[in-house]
Amino acid sequence: MELAASVSHGHGSSSFLHGSAKPKLNSASALFTGAPLSLSPSSTGRQARCPKKLVVHAKRISGLEEAMRIRRERELQTTTKFRKRPPLRRGRVSPRLPVPDHIPKPPYVSSTSLPDLSPEYQIHDSESIAKMRAACELAARVLDAAGKLVRPSVTTNEIDKAVHQMIIEAGAYPSPLGYGGFPKSVCTSVNECMCHGIPDSRQLQDGDIINIDVTVYLNGYHGDTSKTFLCGNVSDGLKRLVKVTEECLEKGIAVCKDGASFKKIGKRISEHAEKYGFGVVERFVGHGVGKVFHSEPIIYHNRNENPGCMVEGQTFTIEPILTMGSIECITWPDNWTTLTADGNPAAQFEHTILITRTGAEILTIC
């Protein structure tokens, strides 16, 4: 999806997973974790090759070469300051949309309680890899279609309705709907909203940026992805924030392969963000995904020393959030919508990836 997995995670509990490195969250917003299903890791097996999918191989990049490239880019860039927009305000939230009875629903839908983070790592055999690919490809197609709706005057509620319809027409369930009481089928996070924005009647404005987070539940598997889109004439500063955030996701994926340590992801993302003066949000993390919406491993996007290594056949999300100012946040009384504390913009990108022997296959592409 994205319901950016926001997780308030310390030593066992977590959230929707964008996760928090520190176990302080009280609100549901930090808690978007997967349903408490028991999942037994199965033998990995060799996956079928899919020419449509992109496989990223881990590689070492010359530090000097990268530094020179950044310097050249900065010399060419114009130094335009970001002009603050009026603070984001809540619009009217319409009732949740219905899902036909014949569409299978994830277990958490029957409860308003936020599911615990599953401790099981989700490692797949060839059959479940095929199902993960199908769910992730659908999520990617829905996200692409939703992005084409982004323009001034369109409401986030209209985007939610379109996303909902496309998902159920494909015979799938919109994973965010009913997750811990979340009232909508997609997350729409505008400007200073870090994540978990609830679609409402607010019209998008010329110059806004919006993250759309799509997760679908298809044939018993979740596919999770998000992207930040530009609305109309966006300032150079915001364009740069969005571009660098996407690059951070790419660099995080580039270090992934069987046997690689999870902490390399946060190191590479932080290094790239800092070159441009952007902050990396620590509170929200990536997560394991598959039969369960949110599970171990927790993927930190900031520098960390947490143990653990990737395993072939494993699936998880990487979903960094970058800010133009403070990385601290506040959550609205709805217990979901989370904004930067200083009102400066934030951007996010997310992919679900499959660990292979030599790298990582990005599943959420179409």
From TrEMBL:
It catalyses: Release of N-terminal amino acids, preferentially methionine, from peptides and arylamides. Residues 1-20, 87-115 are annotated as: Disordered. A divalent metal cation 1 binds at D213, D224, E350. GO terms for molecular function: initiator methionyl aminopeptidase activity; metal ion binding; metalloaminopeptidase activity. Its cofactor is Co(2+); Zn(2+); Mn(2+); Fe(2+). This is Methionine aminopeptidase. Transmembrane segments: none annotated. The keyword Transcription regulation does not apply. It comes from the Eukaryota. It comes from Citrus clementina. Keywords: Aminopeptidase, Hydrolase, Metal-binding, Protease, Transit peptide. GO terms for cellular component: chloroplast. Binds 2 divalent metal cations per subunit. Has a high-affinity and a low affinity metal-binding site. The true nature of the physiological cofactor is under debate. The enzyme is active with cobalt, zinc, manganese or divalent iron ions. Most likely, methionine aminopeptidases function as mononuclear Fe(2+)-metalloproteases under physiological conditions, and the catalytically relevant metal-binding site has been assigned to the histidine-containing high-affinity site. Belongs to the peptidase M24A family. Methionine aminopeptidase type 1 subfamily. Its EC number is 3.4.11.18.
